[in-house]
Amino acid sequence: MIQVKNGDLDKLGLLFERYNRRLFGFFYRLTSRRDVSEDLVQGVFERILKYRSSYTGDRAFSTWIFQIARNLHADHYRNSEKLQTEDEETDWETWPSNDPKTENLSDKMLDRLLLKQAMRKLDEEKKQVLILSRFEGFRYREIAEITDSTEGAVKVRVFRALKDLKDIITDLEKQRIQ
Amino acid sequence: MKNEPHIDLITGYLKGTLDAADRKKFRELAETGEIDTEELDELKKLYAKMESEEVPEPADRMQQRFYTMLEAEKAQQTESLQTSQKTTTETTQTETVREKAAGWLQNFRDRFLNQGLAYAAALFLAGLLIGDMLAPISERDDKIDQLSSEVHQMREMMMISLLENESATERLRAVNISNEIPSSADRVAEALLQTLNNDPNVNVRIAAVDALVRHASNPDVRRRIVDSISKQDSPVVQIALADAMVALQEENAVEEFRKLLEQNEMDSNVRTKLEHTIAALL
Questions:
Q1: CB A86 within 8 Å of CB A33
Q2: I need a surface site. Which of A148, A157, B179, B224 has the fewest CB within 10 A?
Q3: B145 CB-contact burial (10 Å; exposed 0-12 / middle 13-18 / buried 19+)
């Protein structure tokens, strides 16, 4: 990235190759929308180009790029309307429990669906730290840098996020049974 | 909240990253009940279960967009290195302004000299174009001055070419535009003087007189306005000139007015007017 800052723009291509799928995955897990995720990835690299002179190299590029990603997602989230339709709709509220479709699903698959649905119901901040920790593999210290927070606060947030997730799943299971 | 005071141990446990010493501490706290292992085990299971939701492949266009953007940025970088020390944005913006101005003007001249289209429409478009050019520019004063002067130059050229229009209405409008151009524009004054001396239409010549007053601080212009007096045969224009000279307190005009008076074919009202004018100037 320092090379990019100094004018070697081709090196940004390397960074793109290295990070574009990770970023796409990050955005997709947050938005469940492919087109939005593609736009956001582009947005990240546009910002990197635009603000390349502000990169100081005093921190890892990986945390810097995810910080940009997170900010971009926050902007998007604020601006777009909340009625974003997701790529796949799983409407648990109206899903009848004796629907033959659900009966044929293995427990494991049901679990996965439940989990997926529960994640979507989790609030944004909690969702983000879980994604960054569980799927992006960042250490808590790194997540603290990305989220502009402290390591302790991140840990607490992860813990609470898991607890919330568990509660949501329990509720969803109850609804399904009813 | 339970378990949170030991959050470091907890999260370490959840992630499975506790070292031997921490594991021992953890066991001790679990035994005393300070850590609720039941809850923790459930959460740990959940954490492990969190398989990645299947992430689809992004479309090829994502990569294409990125590389298109990169190429564009590289091109700009090369351009700015080649041209000047100015920032890239300023260079491209100024050039865009000039290109737009030149292109528009060419278009304008072609249409006007050939067809005499409604002037108002062209001026409106000019106004839009000028506004559009001025809007995105940064607020540096010298930049604005530069643009202002370019706009004025454009208006000048517009005015001058309009003065050749067949329609007197258009020529009249041309003279009126000149009022919007700073008075230091020599070409404008020159054009107005030509109009004053040569335009077949009386109204246009009168408008030129009024417009020229704005340029009268230039001594050369004044002199030539005065010279023009004796060449005028239309009484209305003569009166307009008379008024202008009084407004400017231009003593040199007296001689010219006297010359006019010597011409016999003159309307008596005008004659009186000129006599008064002479008196006012002396």
A1: yes
A2: A148
A3: exposed
Cβ atoms of B211 and B176 within 8 Å: the answer is yes
B178 lies within 8 A of chain A by CB: no
Confidence of residue A69 (pLDDT cuts 50, 70, 90): very high
Extract the tokens encoding A45.
Answer: 């690299």
Contact (CB<8Å) B56/A34:
yes
**Residue A54 in this model has a pLDDT that exceeds 90:** no
| CB-based contact B53 A13, cutoff 8 Å | no
Q: pLDDT at position A67, please? A: 92
Q: Which helix (H) or strand (E) holds B86?
A: none
Query: What is the Cα–Cα distance from B59 to A21, expressed in whole angstroms?
Result: 11
CA distance A52 to B33: 52
A42 chain-B contacts, CB cut-off 8 A: 62, 65-66, 69
In chain A, count of helices (H) and strands (E)? 9, 0
CB contact under 8 Å between B52 and A159, yes or no, is no
Q: Does the model's pTM come out above 0.80?
A: no
Do residue B11 and residue A119 have CB atoms under 8 angstroms apart? no
* Three-state SS annotation for B102-156: HHHHHHHHHHHHHHCCCHHHHHHHHHHHHHHHHCCCCCCHHHHHHHHHHHHHHHH
Q: Which residues of B touch A119 (CB under 8 A)?
A: 50, 53
Contact of B282 with B254, CB cutoff 8 Å: yes
Structure-derived torsion over alpha carbons of residues B149, B150, B154, B159, reported in degrees to the nearest 10: 10
- Cα-Cα end-to-end distance for chain B: 101
Q: What is the DSSP letter of B173?
A: H
Residue A14 three-state SS: helix
First to last CA, chain A: 55
Q: What is the pLDDT of residue A91?
A: 46
| Per-residue pLDDT reduced to its tens digit, B219-275 | 788 888 888 887 888 888 888 888 888 878 777 888 888 887 887 677 777 788 888
| C-alpha span between B154 and B182 (Å, rounded) | 12
- B240 within 8 A of B276, measured Cβ to Cβ: no
